[in-house]
Design brief:
By secondary structure, the chain is mainly alpha-helical. Helix content is about 30%, strand content about 5%.
């Protein structure tokens, strides 16, 4: 039989794909997608607070891949990436949208 994996954080117990139909998979999903305390609003200058909370969530969720927040901003001949959390002012909405299309099937 497969031995259970114990972890203080649900994300620590997963090393492969997460099966969201299981109790533990659903818990990981709920924890990692829960609303942040600060709601981003273009009307309020709270970008720094929102990004700080997102960085904390990323750490708690074990989104440790250093490339997870990189957005391609260069061209095919001159590739370049910018970090969404620290270089957000240098990334266009179009670049971000184009990058996310790669995750949608």
């Amino acid at each position: 039989p497969t031995q259970p994996v114990f972890a203080l954080s649900p994300a620590n117990a997963f090393t492969n794909l997460i099966d969201y139909s299981t109790k533990s998979g659903a818990e990981v999903y709920a924890t990692n997608t829960a609303a942040l305390e600060t709601t981003f609003s273009i009307d309020k200058p709270n970008v720094a607070t929102f990004l700080d909370e997102l960085k904390i969530r990323a750490h708690q969720a074990k989104w440790n891949d250093p490339n997870i927040f990189l957005i391609p901003t260069g061209t095919t001949t001159v590739p370049n990436n910018k970090n969404l959390l620290s270089e957000y002012g240098q990334i266009t909405t179009e670049q971000c949208t184009n990058h996310t299309r790669g995750y949608i099937t």
